[in-house]
Specification:
The protein is of the alpha/beta class. The protein has 2 domains: 10-172, 4-Layer Sandwich (Nitrilase/N-carbamoyl-D-aminoacid amidohydrolase); 176-307, HUPs (Rossmann fold), CATH 3.40.50.620. It has helices at 34-37, 65-73, 91-106, 174-192, 206-219, 236-249, 259-264; strands spanning 10-13, 18-21, 46-49, 52-58, 78-83, 110-114, 116-119, 122-125, 129-131, 137-140, 152-155, 161-164, 198-201, 224-228, 252-255, 276-281, 284-296, 299-307. Helix 6 (236-249) links the parallel strand 14 and strand 15 (252-255). Helix 4 packs across helix 5 and helix 5 (206-219) packs parallel to helix 6 (236-249).
Length: 308
């Protein structure tokens, strides 16, 4: 008995029909490893929706000619391709180029419906679009946000499908797109994993300032806490810049010196005013440090550590 496990299958259910489609092309590169676990489908899915025959493809299918060609041969007048394609630099232009090529090859419009959001280390940038049978852009959704827009599908006297929309967003500039991808990835990683917020180290430098901006834009400043951990070599400018950054972003901010902890490993440390105490336990020198660094649902969270 042969058992096949299919991936990325689609089931369409309405009052009039039930159709199931199994993805034909399984990617097996970079973040994809589908051929190890799944078997590809071979049958098309063409459904009649109010007089228009719509062929269904899934993601990688569009990057090859034969899934679209088979759908058109089965009567499809319009291709709808459903996607969860990870974002990377200039990926949208690659998708648009491929969709336009398929439309011209088969002389049918293509609607590219794309996921938006983050999932662990992956980011999906949205930006769904549609091209007409000549491969020209007819609809463009926004990037990095959910949206619901109308795409009008009609049939001319020669039974060719025409597609149009009043929605056509401009593609964001490169740096804007990369920043939005970082914000989206952080937001969904934190929220989907149920974390209450972020505690991050703020040095007063450019790297941590950018990290702080991403965190605040992703979650809102009320869910971000910045901690400056100065040492004896930390400049006054770095301390001031860190404080200023936190104030400008509206996040909670604390400065916790690390010199007492450093001193424990190099020489005896006396009691000071920064939360450190030194005492003898069973003849051994030890230290205890306690400081408030965050807030949980139960109230104040206290960081406490014993060093021997």
């Amino acid at each position: 008995m042969l058992s096949l496990l299919f991936v990325n299958n689609l089931v369409l259910i309405s009052l009039d029909f039930l159709v199931e489609y199994h993805k034909m092309e399984l990617p097996n590169y970079r973040v994809f490893d589908e051929k190890r676990y799944f078997s590809a489908g071979s049958n098309t899915a063409v459904v009649d929706i109010k007089g228009t025959k719509v062929g269904i493809n899934i993601c990688e299918d569009l990057w090859f000619s034969h899934p679209v060609a088979k759908s058109v041969a089965a009567g499809a007048q319009l291709i709808v391709n459903l996607n969860a394609s990870p974002y990377h630099y200039k990926k949208h232009q690659q998708r648009l180029k491929v969709a336009s090529r398929r439309a011209r090859e088969s002389s049918v419009p293509v609607i590219y419906a794309h996921m938006v959001g983050g999932q662990d280390e992956l980011v999906f940038d949205g930006g769904s679009f549609a091209v007409d049978s000549q491969g020209e852009i007819a609809y463009q959704a926004p990037w990095f946000e959910e949206s619901s827009n109308e795409v009008i599908v009609g049939i001319d006297s020669d039974k060719n499908v025409l597609i149009s929309s009043d929605v056509c967003y401009e593609e964001p500039e490169t740096l804007s797109a990369i920043y939005s991808a970082l914000v989206t990835g952080v937001r969904d990683y934190i929220n989907k994993n149920g974390f209450k917020g972020i505690v991050l180290g703020l040095s007063g430098g450019i790297d941590s300032a950018l990290t702080l901006a991403i965190a605040a834009d992703a979650l809102g400043p009320e869910r971000v806490e910045a901690v400056m951990m100065p040492f004896k070599y930390t400049s006054e400018m770095s301390r001031n810049d860190a404080s200023d950054q936190a104030q400008r972003m509206g996040v909670s901010y604390k400065s916790i010196g690390i010199e007492p902890m450093f001193n424990l490993g190099t020489r005896e440390t006396e009691v000071d005013d920064d939360g450190w105490t030194v005492r003898t336990l069973d003849g051994k020198k030890s230290a205890h440090y306690e400081h408030t660094i965050g807030i949980t649902e139960e109230g104040t969270r206290v960081f406490t550590e014993n060093l021997f």
